[in-house]
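Dear colleague,

Following up on Tuesday's group meeting, I ran the structure prediction for the two-component complex that the binding team flagged. I've pasted the input sequences exactly as they went in, so you can double-check that nothing got truncated or mislabelled along the way. The structure tokens for the whole assembly follow below. Feel free to forward this to whoever is handling the docking comparison.

Inputs:
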Amino acid sequence: MADVVPSDPSTLEPPPALLEAIGLTKRFGALVANDHVSLAIRAGETHALLGENGAGKSTLVKMMCGLLQADSGELRFEGAPVSFPDPAASRARGIGVVFQHFALFDALTVVENVALGLPRHEGLAALAARIEACVHRYGLQVEPYRRVGELSVGERQRVEIVRCLLGDPRVLILDEPTSVLTPDESESLFRTVDLLTAEGRAVLFISHKLDEVRRLCQRATVLRGGKFIAEVDPRRESAASLARLMVGAEVPRTPRIVTHELGEPRLLVKNLNLKGDGSRGSALIDINLEIRAGEIIGIAGVAGNGQTALFEALSGERLGGDAEAIVIDRTPAGALGPTERRALRAGFVPEERLGHAAAPDMRLSDNVLLTTHGDGRNVRHGVISHSVLHAMFGEIVKRFDVRFGGRDPKARRLSGGNLQKFVIGREVLREPVLLIVDQPTWGVDAAAASFIRTTLRAKAAEGCAVLVISQDLDELLEFTDRIAVMCEGRLTAPVPVEETSREAIGLAMGGAETASAQGDADAA
Amino acid sequence: MPLKLERQENVPLAGLIAAPFVALAVTLVVGAVMFLAMGQDPVEAFRIYFIDPLGDPYTLQELVVKSCPLLLIGVGLAFCYRANRWNIGAEGQYVVGAVFGSWLALATHGTEAGPWVLPAMLVLGAVGGAAYGLIPAFLRVRFGASEILTSLMLVYVAQLGLDYLVRGPWRDPAGFNFPQSVTFDAVATVPLLFEEGRMHAGIVIALVVVVVATFVLGRTLVGFSIELGGSAPRAAAFAGFDERRVTYGVFAVSGGLAGLAGIIEVAGPIGNLQPSISPGYGFTAIIAAMLGRLHPVGILVSSFILALTYIGGEAAQISLRMPFDVTRVFQGTLLIAILAADVLVRYRIRRVEGVRHA
């Protein structure tokens, strides 16, 4: 593997730490989220922060950027003690953060969103020019005048990065940046990161993808259970040894069970067309797909190529196709709403956990109702049975190991991985015959991701048909049976995983097939 | 020095509960300053305003009578506001409900119509209010028009429509040209609960509405879909709840209850249709809904408090020669104080770091 690191700092005198956390401790009630955690980021390095969900990564990052205040311990910037009472103070010192959940307004354009974050007033045109310059310099693809609502997750992330870079940060913190990117996009992000570190900036890279960390980062700090475990040179570790440090045990790979017989078609999509509604989401063009009981089909593709539209068309949130275009378990479902499709024993897990899969400000137990109210268990004659609801809630929490503080917190309070386990568990316990999952492990730690994949695999083995939409190609290659690729609203025919390769899929993701199809159309 | 609001991660429950009490306290302080500025002894004024009415059996009854429309309208508004739909036009829906119900009272006036008249009037009133409430709902669903503006503007349409009716076609021919309808027949009048006093059967209806609304909002799927639609619209769509249906539903309930309040008031304490059938109940009920935390039982309490500002205002007019506008000032101060208290509980104010200007 080519070494993408411009210089190896271990052969040089170590530069002084740009940003240093020394013995930071943070308690939330009885929970010690960070227990004397230390971390030093040096200028010009890419430093990885590794750890499971609940390991304390987010808490540490929030303390380093002024969102939280440490109970004890100190922060140093270039050797001098500093305190960040609020995010503005850390920004003033040159610390920029790109969070997993973006803070962008859908209705505004890129440049308007960026302008909102800036203290000074400058003309939008001047700002757009600055964005263009930044985009050009660091190889980030962002169009200043596009409306954020139209952008894919990957594009939104680039907007956030540009917004940070305009503040000329000395330390850039990236929270799970590659979880929404294609291999190509990740590569270009890595090039951006290399350019940044070559300029003497430091990057703190939070990721669960151990291969990436090993390629990109010169040092890695590992947290587990709120404690500092080790600081290692990831290039000298194996993915397995890093994973051991993170979880304290071996992470099992998802067992591939392809021996079972495939059953009848559970989902049949025939010539599904959907017009783009202009404000957001691409159109769907002639989608055809068949999923049979017992198999897992993966849909790969770069964010923003119609995956969200496809998910919403399948879940019934977006109607407009032919009634016959979508058949769930032999029943034409194209004109049915989400509740009626769930009654056909279909289950759906959307990409966005907060605000789509779950109501952030409602309690978890109430969030159980979202997808189960039509199942005839917790609602009788329109009246909610809170005792049944709580029993179902308890079962999800127990069987899917959902961890949180308190008895029944608001969904907002859960970490990403735990909320995802809850959302997946909510669907799985409905005993669906068809399960459609968009980005099952986005921003979820290795152990939880492995658990989720194993769960989906087990459902397929029980005869459920599973459709997984994911931008994580490795994940799809690891645990699906067949893979189709989505590009510009079209879907390729699914190909068995054994008969395809990263390269072939990568090519299709880039539109190789669509391009040739268009060529044919032009010729005709 | 620029300030900014930052959303708090964990909103303390105690703060949410305390907010309305703090708001009441602030209102009293502002009131005291106002009384001082008007050359009144604040202690004396407060006694007349807020204490004396509570000690007198007649005014206590009046308090209940005045809180009845506030309660009905306020509970309806809670449906809207929970769904994040801002119906500001309850006053208009109240008027249209009164007009619809009164039509039957006038149509059957002087006939031998039986006791079915009053129930039919109440139904008509509710239907009229609901239909009027559905207009801003339709404009929002169909055209994306702000329901805040459309519902508010429709208030004036309704009031002027009522004005036309009682000065024109519905005017009592034997009424010496006063702009009012004939006095309703006994079968078209809301009966009194007791021989003595002014407590009428509408109060029982309002209490039943509180019980039903508490159940619907707290225990049923409909209540859940309203709450979810207001809290996370995309999650509500994912859960299979149609946003348009929720919008129509909450406006129908809200308008219906306002209309019911209107016809009860006209067929009860007032007794005929006049140009001024409401001292701003539809607007004051907004304050009652917010002060009552959008919970029917809370609104039951807050309706009494706001009714007290009306009663106290009347007493102050008589014994202190203060204008009725003082009541409005109290109510307005209270609303601002509640909204501010809510913001301060949910957000914290931070000073923005001084920005260097180039």
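Residues 5 and 216 of chain A are 7 Å apart (CA to CA).

Cheers,
M.
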